[in-house]
Amino acid sequence: MKVVKWLLAIALTLVVGITVYLTMFFDLNHFKPQIVDAVKKQTGRDLVITDDLSWSVFPSLGIKLGGISLSNPENFTPASMLDVNEAVANVALMPLFSQQIEVDLLTLDGLTLNLVTQKNGQTSFDGLSGDGLTDDAAKTPATTQPSDAQAIALQTLDIGGIELTNTNINLIDMASNTTQTFSLKSFTLGQFSLGQFADFAYEFSVTLPDMSVASSGQGQLKIDQMLKHITINDFTMSHSAQGDSLPNKSVSAEMITQMVMALETKTVELQLTKLAAMDIAATGDIKVNYANSIPKIAMTLDVGDIDVDALFPKQESQAENSTSDTATVPSAEPDLSALNTIDLSVKLTAKSIKVSNMLTQNWQLTMAVKKGVLTLSSLTADLYEGKLALSAKLDGRKSVPTYQFDKKLTGVNIRPLLMDAAEIDLLSGQASFEVKGSGASLIPDNLKKNLDAVGQFEVADGSLYGVNIPQMIRSAQQKLKGDLSADSKEELKTDFTSLTGSFTMKDAVVTNPDLAMAAPLIRLKGKGTANIASEALDYTLTTSVVGSLSGQGDAVDESLKGVDIPLTIKGTFQKPKFGIDTKALLEGQFKDEADKAKEKLKEGLFKKLGI
């Protein structure tokens, strides 16, 4: 027992001795001028410590700092780069003798950081890395780093808690005259020990030139004994943003994630167990490998219903939109150099996506971005009772981007698709469509001019709207016979069993050389062009009558059977104009009558000659 008493007495004496020494003979404030001079020599900046430095010794060894300010370079506004209201660190004294660190509490209040970028490119960081050294300081050899044998091994790290409050970071750009403010209202970490989970929480906000963002969250943090793995569980975050450029001027989101970071292999794995934003729900996994200069990111996402039209509602009239679009059409190629700094692969599934009033379902997408090239390996979706299949590639390594694509539609109900996508009521039926193309430039006007494409289409059991070809022929026939009042109130629709053709596209003009339509009463062949820049149509068609053109209850007129009837399609995509080439029809009829007269004359001569 005497030995124990002596040991306790020695320990108590040691603690008291350290306390007396630190408080009476080791005044930290004596070092303030030396610290200020060292910072001035190293960086050329002014360091100000207005409050006295103070010790706390028992039951923990601590130091309290306050009123700290570090200046920006000369002629910068604001003059201060760093301001700290108060910083306190308390470390348990006795465990230090066993190479154990037990921090009772770390607090930092009122940190303000003003990071300025001048018009000439000079920043607040200039000079802090040692380029502000005086000649004498530059000649001083660097302090030798302790060897592995000298390094103190960390046995444990216990922290009673961390509190960060009222932290503000201001990013000031003098060239653009903008300021971005990042505010960390609070960050708290509860009782923390290596290998054990600790609760944490934060409140954060950002003020940008065009929007403001607020975020708060909480979760559980664990760092392993070897300081090689960081695990975050049940990380729940709530975000909100306001700004005129945002959909409906306000966006909110909630996320729940699990994360594992391996510092040794430099990998991060994040499991997104919940994402809810703007009526969009998603889950997925994200893996990041940051061992190389360009981090490698792999994402797998499963998304529910996405209504893009609801996210970006139209608030202006068509006329206003047209004027605005004309005024804002870009005249320069977009800068795609950022693609060179991305190594990303994405696998996406989506229940449905609605955009421009066009609905697609059951999305399956595989995409990658690497070395400046975006590759869409596969995109499949259900589209208006049919299927969409698309692959594409965008090369952004040059100043003028290039692209290529291969698109297929099969079994699509074409009428509602055209109505929803372009408000065009021209065609119905089950359509199959295939097109391959390539081009250069992403400027809208150049997209149309530089696109080269070839393709083919087939529409089965459909109708051509806006024209009733049999009725047009009957009306024209009656007018040719002298009935100028011939007219009809029949529906402007021509039914067909098949409509096929191929096309090429060059210089913004689609050329179709082999249009063919088969209908119960007629056969139609033709060729023509469609200018996608001006939306002008120019088609010449030839129709042959193969059945009776009479309406119900009318006398059957077979006079036009076998006669080629020329038709035309002019106008625009929105307002096509169908007509009969009467001149060509008359010429065809006169030629037919002349041929018949020749045959009769020939037969008469043969009879007279007895042949």
Q: Mind summarizing the main beta sheet?
A: 30 strands, mixed
Roughly what percent helix?
A: 10-25%
- Percentage of residues in strands: over 45%
Average pLDDT value? Answer: 80
Could you give the distance between the termini? 154 Å
Radius of gyration: 40 Å
Low-confidence stretches: 3-16, 137-154, 316-327, 551-556
Structural class, by secondary structure, is: alpha+beta
* Topology, number of strands: 30
Alpha plus pi helix count: 9
- Outline: elongated
Report what the structure shows.
The structure is a single chain. The protein has 611 residues and is an alpha+beta fold. The protein is built from 9 helices and 30 strands. It has a 30-stranded mixed sheet that branches. Strand 12 and strand 13 (229-242) form a beta hairpin. The N and C termini lie far apart (154 Å).
